[in-house]
Design brief:
The chain has about 325 residues and is an alpha/beta fold. The protein is about 50% helix and about 15% strand. The protein contains 14 helices and eight strands.
């Protein structure tokens, strides 16, 4: 039996024109963009479809934009009869997984991730935080490097464990620079600075997590209808208290993406469908386990490719 996971990308996958074909060709797709506008009180859809890119890239715009496109794409798959056995998302993407699992409404999710972006933007002034991708280094060795730099006075920590050979670090600008240099001296192949607006998934984000906790307390959450694998522990989020704790802790904790994918594969998932713009998660999944099938749905052609492939699947038998 084919087991399917819907996965939702995080910040960085946003692009001007995201979801445009669907919005132009289907009223139900345009309705998602309209609902996002109504929930937020401004024209998010205009930024998504026409830009400018620098405005769309702002944390508090990119997060609701990615959520909106991801959920819209997932709903198109559901309407076509493709239903997930599992769901997961990378950082911000976790909210898309929770919407599809029935944990919170689309409108509440759009509102909360907009606030999440604002809180994260406020936590560390621009220019004081940084992130970098470290390639070709073992996790434990990189942990040692970041701990040494942090103990010496410049905060830095592991932020994303994405796939074998690709780990992201996050912290102060000085901490990330020093850890990148030390990692290369310790054998890392490359250290690539990331173009981001803050030190996401680091302890520097704790102030934003406290504010987010208050925002989450104001909305209603339900138990998931399908299993959602959380970022922090890479395990199924079984009830509302676990989900609330996860979403708060996730802001300043490392995203365990490799472990999350391996957990889904261990549960029998053999098809991963990335819902939303880009192909980042699909690429990471392939680096984790090349035996599984991966698909990205971001326009009409990519949707048709999944629907054609699905003819060979035994879905939810």
């Amino acid at each position: 039996m084919t087991k399917i996971a819907f996965v939702f990308p995080g910040q960085g996958s946003q692009v001007v024109g995201m979801g445009q074909e669907f919005v132009e060709n289907a009223a139900e797709s345009k309705a998602f963009y309209d609902r996002a506008n109504q929930s937020l009180g401004f024209e998010l859809s205009k930024l998504m479809l026409t830009g400018p890119a620098e405005e769309l890239t702002l944390t508090y715009h990119a997060q609701p934009a990615l959520l909106t496109t991801g959920v819209m794409v997932a709903e198109k798959l559901l309407a076509a009869g493709i239903k997930p056995n599992y769901a997961a998302g990378h950082s911000l993407g976790e909210y898309g997984a929770l919407v599809i699992a029935g944990v919170l409404t689309f409108e509440d999710a759009v509102s909360v991730v907009h606030k999440r972006g604002l809180y994260m933007n406020e936590a560390v002034p621009a220019g004081q935080g940084a992130m970098a991708a470290i390639l070709g280094m073992e996790l434990e060795a990189l942990h040692e490097v970041t701990e040494q730099i942090s103990v010496a006075g410049d905060a830095v920590q592991v932020a994303n464990v994405n796939c074998p050979g690709q780990i992201v670090i996050s912290g102060t600008k000085e901490g990330v620079e020093k850890a990148s240099l030390a990692a290369k001296e310790a054998g890392a192949k490359r250290a690539i600075p990331l173009v981001v607006s803050g030190p996401f998934h680091s302890e520097l984000m704790r102030p934003s997590s406290e504010k987010l906790s208050g925002a989450l307390a104001e909305i209603s959450l339900s138990a998931p209808r399908i299993p959602v694998i959380g970022n922090v522990m890479a395990k199924e989020l079984e009830d509302v208290p676990a989900i609330q704790h996860e979403l708060v802790e996730q802001v300043y904790s490392a995203v365990q993406w490799e472990a999350s994918v391996r957990e889904m594969i261990a549960q029998g998932v053999d098809v991963f469908i990335e819902c939303g713009p880009g192909k980042v998660l699909s690429g990471l999944v392939k680096k984790i386990d090349r035996s599984v099938a991966t698909y990205c749905v971001y326009d009409e052609a990519s949707l048709e490719a999944v629907l054609e492939a699905a003819k060979e699947w035994t879905i939810n038998a």
